[in-house]
Write a structure and sequence with these properties.
The chain is an alpha/beta fold. It contains 5 helices and 5 strands; from the N terminus they run ααβαβαββαβ.
């Protein structure tokens, strides 16, 4: 996403029913804390889902390819990392939870991104993912250039 869209999204997600309900679903579906309390929010934008993870006790890091997004996550009080899902800067089997909501469909090499996610997940870790049910809902954003 470009900088202007990140800023717009930051305002929209506060009250728009879609984003509010997505966070409610995330709260409801979160697995219990594991031995590895580390969680990654891939494509975090401004960090609303990162905040949900942290509120449930996870050591959450928001990851995005946009510097404005990473700074917005940091401004919320959470680690915000400028990184690609295709090359995650985390050790093998070090993460207990990965969340990627409406992200994988924007990555040209989604197989590489999925491979990286499963590389960093610990055995028994959890991966919460969503993608559009219809590709006509896909926008032109791209995370892995």
């Amino acid at each position: 996403m470009d900088d202007a869209e990140i800023t717009k999204l930051g305002e929209l997600e506060k009250t728009h029913w879609w984003y509010v309900e997505r966070r409610n679903i995330l709260r409801r579906e979160l697995p219990p804390l594991s031995e590895s309390r580390m969680a990654l929010d891939i494509g975090a934008a401004v960090g609303a889902n990162t905040e949900v993870l942290a509120s449930r006790g996870w050591l959450a890091t928001g990851i995005d390819t946009n510097l404005v997004a990473a700074k917005a996550i940091f401004a919320r009080g959470f680690p915000g990392m400028l990184a690609s899902a295709c090359s995650l800067p985390f050790a093998d089997s070090s993460v207990g939870l990965v969340v990627a909501y409406d992200v994988l469909e924007h990555i040209p090499d989604d197989l590489q991104a999925a491979s990286e996610i499963f590389r960093v997940l610990r055995p028994g870790g959890h991966f919460l993912v969503s993608v559009p049910c219809d590709m006509r809902l896909l926008s032109a954003h791209c995370l892995c250039l």
